[in-house]
Amino acid sequence: MSIVTKGATIPIFPCSSIDEQLDFYQALGFEITYRQAKPNLYACVRHRIAELHFFVLKKLEPANSYSMCYISVPDVDAVYKELCGNLKRTYNRVPSKGFPRITKLNNLAEDRRFNLIDPAGNRLLIGQKHTVAEPAAHDSSVVIPPSRFANAFETAYRLAYAKDAPADAAKVLDLVFSKNEEAASILQYKAFVLRADIASSMDEIELMRSFIQQADHLSLTGSELEEAMEATERLNELKTMLG
């Protein structure tokens, strides 16, 4: 009789300071399970969602880090709320820029996720896979290709939220805006809100204000507003930031 056991994957991340790493992860709600001083600095932390190990790499530059891992969780909203709450209790704020930082929750094609970037630049992609829905019935003889505007929006959305590359996302949207591509009002609305959010992340406040105004000037139907609920919530957050 064969015995099948479930394995576990434990990321081992570099950092320039063990103390800085442990302080941050404790603030998140992780517990320290091991710490070693000799022959080399090493430490381990654990939370119900993951176990992480760290070693010291003195010349590490957080901005140049390529270390990352994906953590699948059953309830990403609950995890996000917990981690943000713990950070706020420790730092009196939720860091959204620089190192460390935590991004907003976003729905991508494959999952709902947020990114957690620690003081060393290591990136945790924490997400919950979407439930697979039954494909809708459709006339396979009618194929409507996505517009250039729609493609640009999807690319910019992924760059901004999945790749955490706001400058690249801004370039994609600005290019399609400059060409005056036609698009449905709801898609324009989502794009203006996305561009405003990108401007906010880059501290371009006046640009953010301009795109907020452009989103506000669009008229959407009740069903369109319901479909664009995520964008509307983001828009309201940005307006609150402006005061």
From TrEMBL:
It comes from the Bacteria. InterPro entries: Bleomycin-R, Glyas_Bleomycin-R_OHBP_Dase. Keywords: Antibiotic resistance. GO terms for biological process: response to antibiotic. This is VOC family protein.
